[in-house]
Specification:
The complex is a heterodimer of chains A (551) and B (287). Chain A contains 22 helices and 20 strands. In chain A, the strands form four sheets. Chain A has a six-stranded mixed β-sheet, with helices on both faces. In chain A, strands 16-17-18-13-19-20 form a six-stranded mixed β-sheet, with helices on both faces. In chain A, a hairpin with a 2-residue loop joins strand 19 and strand 20. Chain A is globular. Chain A is an alpha/beta fold and 551 residues long. The mean pLDDT of chain A is 84. Chain A folds into three domains: 172 residues, 3-Layer(aba) Sandwich (Rossmann fold); 69 residues, no CATH class; 241 residues, Rossmann fold (3-Layer(aba) Sandwich). In chain A, helix 15 packs across helix 16 and helix 15 packs parallel to helix 17. By secondary structure, chain B is an all-alpha fold. Chain B has one domain: MetI-like (MetI-like fold, Orthogonal Bundle). Chain B has ten helices and two strands. The longest helix of chain B is centred in the middle third of the chain and has 37 residues. Classes of the chains: A alpha/beta (551), B mainly alpha (287).
Chain lengths: 551, 287
């Protein structure tokens, strides 16, 4: 049997700004048979996208394919000329990028962009292409397949756009489609629909696929075989069954282990205090001009009340746009509440950060999702951590120095990292520095706004463990905001489910299996499981889906 | 680790030993600028003849052993006049560009961080100032209060403040939207700290590049004003004035009109070359 794709001993190297050469892919070999979907899985920087791009004979700027061979449908992609490659791109194989929103031209209609491939390659007449596109829209279960093509990209939702970009890839009738993290940016409830659509189209057409992802549970639903990558090397290759049930390589096991929800140890005696640490009553906050009734034009948080006990953790979970981040910003005083009371440690806080005293600010710290933008790229780690020490505690240079070392120890970073800038750290390291800065203030409460969602599973699990450990040592409380149920389950004592700016349910992790509110049921059942049959076996009430999903 | 280290050294390109990469074009630019700066400082010591004295019997004299760059329309030594002119052109422009960029960048960052009415008032006021044609503004000011070196410096800087302000504000607004500024704000930091420690380090690169471009503009505007007779007053002359007073030599191909033009060109071009090729610090992440 001839394989559609044969990659042999692939090597890709990059040149750094000092002219040094670094191998980013180091001798990777695997095959893809006709109609087979192979997943490339690994952490960021493991080379999964780089390998996917070499299938098209492409290397990103600064990179060079330095050895090995990539043969797709009998052609060696590396020896073809650029012109010959252009001829097969889009017809023999196609690419679905991670962010469909960025991949579409906002100034042209969707239909024009979907059929562009047929025009470039002259495969079929525009009318035929349009008819075929509509068929594809239907196959991908897009709403109103007849007319959706005449819309502009901003007029459809993220999940629809992602499916449309798959239609764009499929229209040239390729033998191989490369999916580059196509569902990573989507909400879990949307992700299901997109995955289902991809799966059915690929199976029906007998199209081979390469599915790049860092999420093992998603990959388990769609892939026939899995290639586990780390540091530019294939650590393990096997069928989905083999990888999930009989992983041999330690890294694969680590990946799998990161998926097991680690139940949080029973809350210790810290709950004795009579007064809660933070109490929020009837909070309303939003954006835009204040209306006649004193409320903002767009209300992102409506009538939310919640309570955090000392030494305990509260999880806030919901989809993008449900107001969970706005709630955190309101509590921190970044966005002043329009109505409502925030009582922290027995005192009522000012609504905006400016009205709060320095100590009040110090005791409540917020850690943002993206460590990339939350750390000043022009400052060293040392300077970043030292500033709160000077500002809140007035430490002199010597005390500061010692404390920076302590903080780095706390977040398990080596001391020699202190002279580096954020740009020279990995994602997980940056998030640790981000967290250490909050710790430097000696807070009582830390608001964690999606701090693990930009990280890979293994790294995120390590950060969660770190948070738990620090809580034991320092007696902190966390408000943990996330869209990822397993993360919240692992660390929180109470979980608040938000939808459309409102709190819809408050439950404990023990009862997560049996939520009462229909939205919570939908949300919790949409989280992918490490079971290849999960997606096919999943049944959701279509009424519910229609009511709560903006697909 | 040691392996990679030795490999690193052998692979490095020239000029990277200090951890900075500075290419040859940038170095050429820098050396021309340094040359002119040196001339500006040392001019009184090295001029072969007094600046105002008529030393050649001929006017628009050719290059000769006595007069390396010929003589001007009165028979004064051109080399001496260019060497002294460097003081005005380089010195005046440097002073003006420093004032313009410092005040513009400060105001721009304050406007970005403070926002609200302060931002609006500052922006509209400087927009209004920006709408006055620069040569006309210079003409009016010089005609009203007369030409002196402080007046020239101030006029030139006022003309270029709005541009520097706009540039710095645009950069600072972007930085201001980043999470680390929010973190600093809810830490309770003052506006001054935000500007100095959080924003400035992140915009200093483009601001320096902008300073270089503005320096060139100022040299050219000063030359223009002098060409119109409103710049540095006789017997001293900056390079622009030298071109103007010797313009009559153009039909004869006199070196007196060519030399100062080349001087202006060499300075402005090398400033541009330098700012386009500023040394870059090498921060090799993968090491």
């Amino acid at each position: 049997m001839v394989n559609l794709v044969e990659i042999r001993d692939l090597k890709v190297e990059a040149t750094t700004d000092s002219g040094r050469r670094v191998d980013i892919i180091n001798g990777v070999s695997f095959d893809i048979a006709e109609g087979e979907i192979v997943a490339l899985i690994g952490e960021s920087g493991s080379g999964k996208t780089t390998i996917a791009l070499t299938l098209m004979g492409h290397a990103r700027p600064g990179c060079r394919i330095s050895g090995g061979s990539v043969s797709v449908a009998g052609k060696d992609m590396l020896t073809l000329s650029e012109k010959q490659r252009a001829r097969v791109r889009g017809t023999e194989f196609a690419y679905v990028p991670q962010s469909a929103a960025a991949a579409f031209n906002p100034a042209a209609t969707i239909m024009d962009q979907v059929i562009e491939v047929t025009r470039i390659h002259g495969i079929m007449s525009p009318d035929e292409a349009r008819a075929r596109a509509v068929d594809l829209f239907r196959a991908l279960s897009l709403p109103e397949p007849e007319t959706i093509g005449s819309r502009y990209p901003h007029q459809v939702s993220g999940g629809q756009l992602q499916r449309l970009s798959a239609a764009m890839a499929l229209i040239g009738d390729p033998k191989l489609v490369i999916f580059d993290e196509p569902t990573t940016a989507l909400d879990v409830t949307t992700q299901i629909e997109v995955l289902r659509a991809f799966k059915s189209v690929m199976k029906k057409g007998g199209i081979a696929g390469v599915y790049v992802s860092h999420d093992l549970a998603v990959v388990a639903q769609i892939a026939d075989r899995i290639v586990v990558l780390k540091g530019g090397e294939a650590k393990e290759i096997g069928t989905t069954e083999e990888i999930l049930n009989g992983a041999k390589h330690p890294y694969t096991r680590e990946l799998l282990a990161a998926f097991e929800p680690k139940p949080r140890g029973a809350a210790d005696a810290a709950e004795s205090g009579p007064a809660p640490l933070l109490e929020i009553e009837n909070l309303i906050a939003g954006y835009g001009q204040a209306q006649a009734d004193g409320l903002p034009l767009v209300r992102a948080v409506e009538h939310v009340s919640l309570k955090v006990e000392k030494g305990r953790n509260l999880g806030i979970i919901g989809e993008s746009g449900c107001g969970k981040s706005t709630l955190a910003r309101t509590i921190a005083g970044i966005l002043p509440a329009a109505v409502g009371k925030i009582v922290f440690d027995g005192k009522e806080l000012g609504r905006s950060a400016r009205e709060r005293s320095r100590d009040e600010l110090r005791e409540m710290q917020i850690v943002f999702q993206y460590a990339d933008t939350a750390l000043n790229p022009a400052k060293s780690v040392e300077d970043i951590l030292a500033r709160p020490l000077t500002f809140y505690h007035g430490m002199n240079a010597k005390a500061r120095n010692a404390r920076v070392d302590e903080l780095l120890d706390m977040v398990r970073l080596p001391h020699n990292l202190r002279h580096r800038r954020p740009g020279e750290l990995s994602g997980g390291q940056k998030q640790r520095v981000n967290f250490a800065r909050a710790l430097a203030a000696d807070p009582k409460l830390i608001l964690c706004d999606e701090i693990t969602s930009a990280l890979d599973t293994v790294v995120a699990a390590a950060i969660i463990d770190l948070l738990k450990e620090l809580q034991r040592e320092l007696g902190l409380s966390y408000i943990f905001i996330s869209h990822d149920l397993s993360v919240v389950e692992a660390i929180c004592d109470e979980i608040v489910v938000m939808y459309g700016g409102k709190k819809v349910e408050e439950i404990t992790p023990a009862k997560v299996k049996t939520p009462e509110h229909p939205y919570s049921q939908l949300l919790f059942s949409s989280v992918p499981r490490l079971d290849p049959t999960w997606l096919d076996g999943l049944e959701q009430d279509p009424e519910l889906v229609r009511a709560y999903c903006r697909r | 680790m040691t392996m990679t280290h030795s490999e690193t050294k052998s692979d490095r390109i020239s000029g990277t030993r200090l951890g900075y990469r500075f290419n040859i074009i940038g170095m050429v630019g820098l050396s021309v600028i340094l040359f002119w700066a040196l001339i500006a400082i040392l001019a009184p010591l090295i001029v072969p003849y007094p600046v105002g004295e008529i030393v050649d019997l001929d006017y628009f004299g050719p290059m000769s052993r006595d007069f390396w760059l010929g003589s001007d329309y009165l028979g004064r030594d051109m080399l001496s006049r260019i060497l002294m002119g460097a003081r005005y052109t380089v010195g005046l422009s440097l002073a003006a560009v420093t004032i313009a960029c410092f005040s513009g960048v400060m105001l721009g960052m304050i406007a970005a961080v403070a926002g609200g009415w302060l931002d609006t008032v500052l922006s509209r006021f400087l927009d209004a100032l920006n709408s006055i044609p620069s040569k006309l503004f210079g003409l009016v000011v010089v005609a009203a209060v007369g030409s002196s070196i402080p007046v020239l410096i101030l006029t030139l800087s006022v003309i270029y403040i709005p541009g520097a302000y706009r540039f710095a504000r645009a950069l600072a607004v972007n930085i201001n939207a980043m999470d680390f500024i929010t973190v600093a704000r809810i830490r309770g930091e003052s506006t001054l700290y935000l500007i100095r420690s959080e924003i400035l380090p992140n915009i200093v690169g483009p601001v320096l590049a902008d300073l270089g471009i503005r320096f060139v503009f100022i040299v050219l505007l000063l030359s223009g004003l002098s060409f119109l007779g409103l710049g540095v007053q006789p017997p001293y002359a900056d390079w622009g004035a030298l071109v103007r007073e010797n313009i009559g030599g153009l039909p004869f191909g006199a070196p007196a009109v060519m030399a100062p033009s080349f001087a202006i060109a060499s300075l402005t071009i090398s400033v541009n070359l330098l700012i386009d090729n500023l040394p870059k610090k090498i921060r090799d992440r993968s090491e």
